[in-house]
């Protein structure tokens, strides 16, 4: 059989962070999380199941990948093959319009796009909420890239109910400015850093407890379209997550000197009367939650410190979508 399908998935940036798994195999998280999907960073992936191919083949950005990278894709595709009764190998072609493994959530869009293409190519045609439980098995943050706007990943209790739900379309004046401090692959993966933090940081239990409060409060603020409250909760939650890493043994920090400069620049902007708030994932890059109508003013200020190509303005991204080949 050969039924090539191609999809685009947009990356998402967590405003309420996911940090820690309670089930390593099923990727069940320690806490629920919430994100904003962005339109400027995305992955396009095609999947075809072909009887003439002996083993799975994986191309990333037009480069044939090695056995290790291909094996990860193969294990993920097996979820769809088993469900659909497919025995054929697959040809996977993926293009990242976001730097890979640099703390810019490339795994979110990457695994979400792979899930979406495999879903269509296999003929399963699962709805997006159900598909999010598959995407989760490839990358936790990919769960949320099924949908555009504000998305919650409910931690759930099992494989079926740990899933994504859309909270709000984000069709109001909201956006994000990304400051790309370093687009190189980070030395310590999120998975490794997460595991060590959960196991060794004395701050972690308190962070978990406060995150459930943050999640309830930010959902109220989103529904009320209270931008400043959304921003304050976002900044606080992200910094608390990084504090848990600093408390790990050995201590872990993804920050670079320019990360600190970027955070200070955001504080300066806020003091000048432009409401904006920073957050960071497991990487050095800083994301600035803002009103989309203020984004160009924010970029104009930031280019006094950073190169223009390091600053990317994003509006809210869309749901996972099929695209023509």
From TrEMBL:
GO MF term set: ATP binding; diphosphomevalonate decarboxylase activity
| Keywords from the named record | ATP-binding, Lipid biosynthesis, Lipid metabolism, Lyase, Nucleotide-binding
* Residue ranges of every copy of the Mvd1 C-terminal domain listed in the record: 177-310
Q: Which InterPro entries match?
A: GHMP_kinase_C_sf, Mev_decarb, Mev_diP_decarb, MVD-like_N, Mvd1_C, Ribosomal_Su5_D2-typ_SF, Ribsml_uS5_D2-typ_fold_subgr
SUPFAM superfamilies this protein is in?
A: GHMP Kinase, C-terminal domain, Ribosomal protein S5 domain 2-like
Q: Does the keyword Lyase apply?
A: yes
Q: Name one GO biological process term.
A: isopentenyl diphosphate biosynthetic process, mevalonate pathway
One GO CC annotation? cytosol
Record's NCBIfam families? mevDPdecarb (TIGR01240)
Q: What is this protein called?
A: diphosphomevalonate decarboxylase
């Amino acid at each position: 059989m050969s039924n090539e399908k191609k999809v685009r998935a947009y990356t998402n940036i967590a405003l309420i962070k996911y940090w820690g798994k309670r089930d390593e195999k099923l990727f069940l998280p320690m806490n629920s999380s919430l994100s904003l999907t962005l339109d400027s960073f995305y992955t396009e992936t095609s999947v075809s199941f072909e009887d003439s191919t002996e083993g799975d083949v994986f191309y990333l950005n037009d480069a044939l990948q090695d056995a290790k990278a291909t094996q990860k894709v193969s294990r993920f595709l097996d979820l769809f093959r088993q469900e659909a009764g497919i025995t054929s190998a697959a040809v996977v072609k993926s293009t990242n319009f976001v730097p890979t493994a640099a703390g810019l959530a490339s795994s979110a869009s990457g695994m979400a796009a792979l899930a979406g293409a495999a879903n269509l190519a296999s003929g399963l045609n699962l709805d997006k909420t159900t598909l999010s439980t598959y995407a989760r098995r490839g990358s936790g943050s990919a769960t949320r890239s099924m949908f555009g706007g504000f998305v919650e990943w409910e931690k759930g209790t099992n494989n079926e109910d740990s899933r994504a739900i859309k909270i709000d379309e984000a069709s109001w004046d909201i956006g994000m400015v990304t400051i790309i401090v370093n687009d190189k692959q980070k030395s310590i993966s999120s998975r490794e850093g997460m595991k060590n933090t959960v196991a060794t940081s004395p701050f972690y239990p308190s962070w978990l407890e406060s995150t459930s409060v943050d999640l309830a409060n930010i959902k109220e603020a989103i529904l009320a379209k209270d931008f400043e409250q959304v921003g304050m909760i976002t900044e606080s939650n992200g910094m608390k997550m990084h504090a848990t890493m600093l408390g790990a043994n050995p201590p872990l920090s993804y920050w670079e000197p320019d990360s600190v400069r970027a955070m200070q620049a955001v504080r300066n902007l806020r003091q000048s009367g432009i409401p904006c708030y920073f957050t960071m994932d497991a990487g050095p890059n800083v994301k600035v939650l803002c009103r989309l109508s203020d984004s160009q003013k924010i970029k104009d200020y930031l280019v006094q410190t950073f190169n223009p190509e390091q600053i990317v303005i994003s509006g809210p991204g869309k749901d996972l979508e099929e695209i023509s080949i």
